[in-house]
Specification:
- Helices cover about 20% and strands about 40% of the residues.
- The chain has 2 domains: about 35 residues; about 140 residues, no CATH class.
- Strands 3, 4, 5, 6, 7, 8, 10 and 11 form an 8-stranded antiparallel sheet that branches. Strands 2-1-12-9 form a 4-stranded antiparallel sheet.
- The protein is α+β, with helices and mostly antiparallel strands and about 180 residues long.
- It comes from Saliphagus infecundisoli.
- This is DUF1850 domain-containing protein.
């Protein structure tokens, strides 16, 4: 290799560096996009099998809706997907009763709410027919009472587990997405 040239070699090197930098930047973008892909998994704790699996993204809302067992009024625990965790934003309810918050409560259109900022890597819920526990994701309601017992709700990075055994709580649209490897 000659040390003297007309500058073409250094320009070619710069072009390669610029092109290489663009490829690296595009690769980093692809990794960032893939990194925002999550799935919400509801595991039946009695069997250990996935009961429900849904595609979610960073910032998506997830609602655990149920009827208060004493007051017989609706309660909604509102969460937001933050990485591999659920951050509780608020609890909404229409009457006061056992186990419902009393501090920091404010009025909303349909009753009351209290804000929260707790993060959960796992939520354990004991669904019951009396409370009618449902998970609401992207406007779709998913009945949790068909589980054999308590369920664990988690958020996992990546696409769906292909070939996962999914229980009765799986909606047909979610089953189609899970079986195809993604949304």
């Amino acid at each position: 290799m000659s040390e003297s040239n007309d500058g073409e070699g250094s320009r070619l090197t710069r072009r390669h560096l610029l092109a290489g930098g663009a490829v690296v930047a595009a690769g980093a973008t692809a990794v960032a996009v893939a990194g925002d892909e999550y799935h919400l998994v509801v595991t039946d704790l009695a069997s250990g099998d996935p009961f429900l699996e849904l595609a979610v993204s960073e910032g998506d809302g997830v609602v655990l809706a149920y009827t208060h067992s004493v007051e017989k009024t609706p309660v909604r625990d509102v969460y937001v997907v933050e990485g591999e965790a659920l951050r509780m934003e608020r609890t909404e309810f229409s009457s006061f009763g056992a186990g419902l918050p009393t501090d920091g409560v404010y009025r909303i259109e349909d009753g009351y709410a209290v804000d929260s900022d707790e993060r959960f890597t796992e939520l354990t819920v004991a669904p019951s027919d009396v409370a009618g526990h449902e998970l609401v994701v992207d406007g779709e309601r998913h009945d949790l009472t068909d589980a054999e017992g308590s369920v664990a709700i988690t958020v996992e990075a990546g696409s769906f587990l292909s070939g996962a055994s999914l229980g009765a709580g799986m909606s047909s649209s979610a089953t189609d997405r899970a079986g195809s490897g993604g949304p």
